[in-house]
């Protein structure tokens, strides 16, 4: 048996697993316990409760190969924030149509890699990014990232990414259309460790308003 893996009874608690592994392997360093059964259970729960919504797992959350390999087998999508993350999930068998390159400030090299591997879906939140994509990957399918912060979150990402939906969404959609680019949707990130579930209602409402705005421009 691989010394890096220990078989544990499925009814054991996390504390029992840690004690068992530490005692058996005489581990004195920090220990990371992966409960892959829990991932399968959560994926099945998602499918049961949200059958029309495809999950795209954020690789930066935990990029352990065992987790990513399992999610590939389960048919999950992947949210990648870098070229390295793209390379990792593609190397583990994820198909390009199950990947979103969710970084609004991409390097030219990573855009060219996405083009080479047919990862067409990617986010943007500014005109400079649109110009860059139009030059290097005009066939991309773009997702406008708007800012919509939770009122309470451990880490608010709106200060770094996401355009102002009131001020910037309309001109950015017009600019994308003038460049002949294909915009397919809207995204927002309420922040990591959000304690404000209600904020999703507001974010989705804004996204719906932008869909209507785009439709009026002739963008599907």
Largest sheet: 3 strands, parallel
Query: Total strand count, please?
Result: 8
Strand order of the largest sheet: 1-2-3
- As a whole number of angstroms, the C-alpha radius of gyration is 20 Å
Strand residue percentage: 15-25%
Q: What is the number of independent domains?
A: 1
SSE sequence, one letter per element: HHEHEHEHEHEEHEEH
Q: Specify the CATH homologous superfamily.
A: Alanine racemase
Could you name the CATH topology?
Answer: TIM Barrel
N- to C-terminal distance:
53 Å
The CATH class is identified as: Alpha Beta
Shape: globular
Q: Could you say what the CATH architecture is?
A: Alpha-Beta Barrel
Task: Tell me, rounded to a whole number, the average pLDDT.
Answer: 88
Structural class by helix and strand composition? alpha/beta
Family: Belongs to the Orn/Lys/Arg decarboxylase class-II family.
EC number: 4.1.1.17
Pfam family, one: Orn_Arg_deC_N
GO biological process, one term: putrescine biosynthetic process from arginine, via ornithine
